[in-house]
User: Which sequence fits this backbone?
């Protein structure tokens, strides 16, 4: 999911939360790609927000 804003909010993780709940133990990590500058934790160790610019650094 690409978020067009500088900082994701709690609601931006709702889809990942639903997916994680449905997948149970099979769910590993969810990533939101956003237009900010830093990798951000979400408050839930399973989710991260990663800047789109980081995709080219891998």
Assistant:
């Amino acid at each position: 999911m690409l978020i067009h804003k500088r900082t994701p909010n709690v609601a931006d993780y709702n889809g990942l939360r639903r997916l994680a709940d449905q997948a149970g133990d099979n769910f590993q990590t969810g990533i939101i790609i956003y237009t900010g500058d830093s990798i951000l934790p979400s408050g839930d160790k399973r989710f991260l927000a990663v800047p789109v610019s980081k995709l080219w650094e891998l």
Observations:
- The beta strands are 2-3, 30-34, 40-41, 47-51.
- The two ends are 18 Å apart (CA to CA).
- The CA atoms of residues 6 and 58 lie 21 Å apart.
- The mean pLDDT is 88.
